[in-house]
Amino acid sequence: MTLPTRGGKPQNEPQKRKAIESWLTDMDGVLVHEGEPVPGAPEFVNRMKASGKPFLILTNNSIYTPRDLQARLNRMGFDVPEQSIWTAALATAQFLSDQRPGGTAYVIGEAGLTTAMHAAGYVLTEFDPDYVVLGETRTYSFEAITKAIRLIDGGAKFICTNPDATGPSNEGALPAAGSVAAMISKATGVEPYFVGKPNPMMMRSALNTIEAHSESTAMIGDRMDTDVLCGLEAGLETILVLTGISTREEADRYPFRPSRIVDSVADLIDEI
């Protein structure tokens, strides 16, 4: 029996991907784990820099500016340019600038988000804003959440930087933007639009930033439900590392698969 073909090849044969010409990598769980560099990660980043290939370090955390994160990584032995860091805050600000240039927003978040919104030309206000934008913060204010609920009831559109329900701390899990967004949604009946992972919008904005093509880009992550899913839906090669959240056994339970699984980014140094 002749198998159905696509482009002259049987459909059950895997499509051979192009060589990797650019890299996207998550930060926490891939390059850094519990405040320490993953063994081999600084060497991996140095190899990416030396290769001249475009790359970005991605994070769903919207608290910090790229300059903050650059300083944090530098203290751990990473020599990373500020422009090589892409956050959910930057992706959110870019998305809103594309949707409504020069708009207004009521923002719940810290410097990473407010700085990105200002840089995108947005006016931050609590008086009849176009959007309510929710990001991560160390201290969620009941007063600010109440204000957000009333503004959304009044017609403001609801945006959230990322859907993560919890974040890590030395004492255990902390409520994150996704949990607070759920509370606001329960009060208003309005669901937010999430810009960060696993929305492939985050990947596409990153690709556009470094002028890369999905067919020749790899996404490295430690979570099946965000990094791998996001990369897969954006058409990237996906590489799961086992230095963070997802294990090899957990990966087998998902209905989708990464392109491959490696122990850590140290295993990828020779590929760059």
Salient structural properties:
alpha/beta, Rossmann fold, six-stranded parallel β-sheet, five-stranded parallel β-sheet, 20% strand
Summary of the model, kept short:
The chain is α/β, with parallel strands linked by helices and 272 residues long. The chain has helices spanning 41-51, 66-75, 88-99, 111-119, 142-153, 177-188, 200-209, 224-233, 248-251, and strands at residues 5-6, 9-10, 22-26, 32-33, 36-37, 55-59, 85-87, 104-108, 123-124, 131-134, 157-160, 166-167, 174-175, 193-194, 217-221, 237-241, 260-262.
What does this structure look like?
With 272 residues, this protein is an alpha/beta fold. The chain has two domains: 117 residues, HAD superfamily/HAD-like (Rossmann fold); 95 residues, HAD superfamily/HAD-like (Rossmann fold), CATH 3.40.50. 33% of the residues lie in helices and 20% in strands. The chain is built from nine helices and 17 strands. The strands form five sheets. Strands 7-6-3-15-16-17 form a six-stranded parallel beta sheet, with helices on both faces. A five-stranded parallel beta sheet has the order 9-8-10-11-14, sandwiched between helices. α5 links the parallel β10 and β11. The protein is globular. The chain starts with a strand and ends in a 10-residue tail after the last strand.
